[in-house]
Amino acid sequence: MALPKWRKGPGIYNESKNLPIYQHKATLQQAVKDNSFLVVTGETGSGKTTQLPQYLHQAGFWSNGKIGITQPRRVAAITVAQRVSQEMHCSLGREVGYQVRFDDCTTQDTVVKYMTDGCLLREILADPVLSQYSVVILDEAHERSLNTDILLGLLKQTLSSPDKASKGRCVPLKVVVMSATLETDKLSVFLGGCPVFTIPGRTFPVTSKFSCAIGPKDTESSVYVKEVVKVALDVHTSEMAGDILVFLTGQSEIEKACDMLYEKAESIDYRYDVQDHKVEGLLILPLYGSMPTDQQKQIFQPPPPGIRKCVVATNIAATSLTINGIKYIVDSGFVKQLNHNSRVGMDILEVVPISKSEALQRAGRAGRTSAGKCFRIYSPAFWEKCMPEYTVPEIQRTSLTAVILTLKCLGVHDVIRFPYLDRPEERFILEALKQLYQCDAIDRRGKVTRLGELMVEFPLPPGLTRALLQAASLGCEDLLLPVAAMLSVENIFIRPEKQKEADKKHRQLGVQAGSCNDFTMLLSVFEKCKASDAPSAWCKDNYIHWRALKSAFSVETQLREILLRLQKKRDFPMEKFDGNKSELFRRCLCTGYFTNVARRYGVLHNGWAWIHEHSIKSPKCILHISPHRSLFDQEAQLDWVIFHDLLVTSRIYIRTVCPIRYDWVKDLLPKLHEVDVYELSSVAREEVTDEEVAKWVTKEAAKRQTDVFKKLEKRNDESSVRDARARYLQRKQERQQGKAS
DNA sequence: GAGCACTGC
User: Which nucleotides of B are covered by protein (CB under 7 A)?
Assistant: First the structure.
């Protein structure tokens, strides 16, 4: 993102005096002095992120410790720190600094520190009372990022028990929570009824219009893609100058929409159609996260005179990136979301309707510089029936294994009664406990084991960490470190127009590795590129995403450093293994991926999935995803695989796949089949009645058919195949008609 | 035929 050039000297000073927050300066300073907790709310443009830390600095808070400000995103932490250091006339890294992963720009002088919420959480692990800080500001709390939610709970818990709070501190910690105007009462109540400060913002009105095109039943991708294209073109031909931002769910949809826009925009006759004579052409730009950086930069350039810009984007444009000059929004009403399914114990990526608050946020992107318009392609009925009020916070829809392990390491034993702003369902917590117990991170009483203590040190999902530590204890960490790194970054395989050629190259890379599965393929790509003299050119030749691979290199280095530190410091477990390398590697993976197991279609009838097309094996193979319990002891040696993740679109796909033997899982994780619900409940909290447990067990049994599995079956049954075929034929026909005319 | 949202440590 291009950084704005800030004027130096008095200019800046005057500018910040004009911000809406300025007139509340003294009151805010006093309020932080008087209260342990404070909620500050204000829309974008109120200046709270840049000014409040400076006010607290001026009020002398720095003399008792640092002023820490958290952001959910790296870019925000860095750019805001840069700006504030200029406003305070100091060089970045001195009085004002920032810290994000791989980039610590702070010194001993740093008293105003911007950082990501994940960084502060890591600091809490080392220093639970945050003795270095006098004030902690949690910014963008309304976004409800997982880390911010955890921090909120931890700070509330620490500050509300006086002996904990004063331990190792001379002056009590102050906590300020900053949020957009949404749900601030709830925050205040959560923090013991603390005062709420409201600061007016500086945004322009945005008018929203519904259309009747998409009703509650139209959830088909091709339908809404077509509709957003139509609406975007309508806007282009009938509205005054100003750029357009279209929201869709993913790369393929965006590319389809862009193709359609190109095709249709060409045929517009600008002599008659366009009201505002300044607009004579349409510049169509796709925008999604995995796009090359230089292409992304193009988005921020102002369009040539007389040309209207139309950006077709994923949700990345909702919060992460701000594009200037946007005056019109076209909102598809859908988003791709990663949800956790606690019954199957897996995460599932799926397309869902956005929430009403998210729709408002999307609309708000049109009102940054002047009044704007938002065109919703869905009907009021869709709004009412399909869209929830608020987006379910991340903590209620993701796997909690990492969170629970972190909390346990911080000494929070009772993870069910931990003060969550929004409590995750109990079965999510129980399931996380179960998985942690099964992979030996906690013991029967819910206490963190040695292995668990080692695991929490790694910035990886617990399963992957478990596999890595297994490898380290067997002396083969060199096999797992690159794989863990590769799975932590965005997809490294590029599939451009020349898909077949790319696939062929990718497959060659994998096959040369000897034993071939998707995990060894990752290893092979990593090693081959590392060994290459010109890695960036090598990537281009092989259709590999160089930016992603480069970050995999630095992640690998970081993981290796952590591992070395742990191996030196503590009595690190060591084991022996006699067998071939391929088996060793796959056994290690089993210890982490025991939740993600599938086998070739057999007798049991629960859920089916396809191996994703990108897999090196690439058989169009139907698999059966299985929760272990029912399959234990049954044909255990049949074609089993473990997989990294699960994708639900028109079908269920498993991605990054590796064949295994089921008895490895059985050997490596003897606890896999021994846990029962009662034990877990007692692990989770001290007292639990038998009645409650019984209730839970019955509920569990009733839920045997999960939502996913129901969806699966529906999608796999004959009628839906027929429907899909009919839709395909219809599309084909339309395409032909389109060409003919 | 269909085929990888976005963050973060």
Answer: 1-9
A431, pLDDT greater than 60: yes
pLDDT category of residue A435 using cuts at 50, 70 and 90: confident
C1' of B4 to CA of A134 (Å): 43
DSSP state of A440: T
A22 and A149, same domain (yes or no): yes
pLDDT tens digits, residue range A312-342? 999 999 888 888 889 999 999 999 988 887 6
Residue A518 in contact with residue A615, Cβ under 8 Å?
yes
Judged against a pLDDT cut of 80, whether residue A470 lies above it is answered with yes
Do A240 and A368 lie in one domain? The reply is: yes
List of long-range contacts for A251-256, beta carbons under 8 Å, 24+ apart: A251/A288, A251/A290, A251/A314, A253/A221, A253/A225, A254/A286, A254/A287, A254/A288, A254/A312, A254/A313, A254/A314, A255/A286, A256/A225
Whether A143 and A280 map to the same domain: the answer is no
**Residue span of the structural domain in which A336 resides:** 206-392
Query: Is the same domain home to A194 and A319?
Result: no
- Pick from A172, A199, A226: which residue ends a domain? A199
**Domain-located, residue A676:** no
Measured distance CA(A70)–CA(A113) in Å, rounded? 8
With 90 as the cut, is the pLDDT of residue A615 above it?
Answer: no
Residue A11's pLDDT is 38
Q: Among A530, A558, A589, identify where a domain stops.
A: A589
Strand B-contacting residues in A 491-550, CB cut-off 7 angstroms: 491, 493, 495, 499
| pLDDT (0 to 100) of residue A363 | 93
- Distance in angstroms (rounded) separating the CA atoms of residues A156 and A164: 11
Give the closest nucleotide to A494 (alpha carbon vs C1').
B4
- Interface residues 212-241 of A with strand B (CB < 7 Å): 221
Judge if A195 and A301 occupy the same domain: no
pLDDT on residue A12:
44
| Overall average pLDDT of the A438-453 stretch | 90
Q: What is the pLDDT of residues A288-299, one digit of tens each?
A: 887 877 778 888
Cα angle A367, A368, A369; round to 5: 100
Specify the range with the lowest mean pLDDT, choosing from A53-57, A514-518, A673-677. Answer: A673-677
Nucleotide nearest to A287 (CA to C1'): B5
pLDDT of A699 strictly over 50: no
Measuring from the CA of residue A503 to each C1', which nucleotide is nearest?
Answer: B3
Nucleic strand B contact set for A 159-218 (CB, < 7 Å): none
Q: Are residues A38 and A118 in the same domain?
A: yes
Alpha helices for A88-220 (secondary structure H): 117-126, 146-160, 162-166, 184-190
pLDDT of residue A107: 94
CA distance A362 to A330: 9
Q: Which nucleotide is nearest to A650 (CA to C1')?
A: B2
In a domain, A286, yes or no: yes
pLDDT beyond 70 at A143? yes
Residue A105 beta carbon within 7 A of nucleic strand B:
no
A283 CA, B3 C1': Å apart:
27
* Nucleotide nearest the Cα atom of A76 (by C1'): B7
In the predicted model, what is the mean pLDDT of residues A486-505? 80
**What stretches of A26-180 adopt beta strand conformation (E)?**
37-42, 66-71, 96-100, 103-105, 112-116, 133-138, 174-179
Domain count, chain A: 3
pLDDT at A28 over 70: yes
| A611 domain residue, yes or no | no
| Domain identity same for A24 and A115 | yes
Question: Is A115 in the same domain as A217?
Answer: no
Taking residues A202-224, what's their average pLDDT? Answer: 80
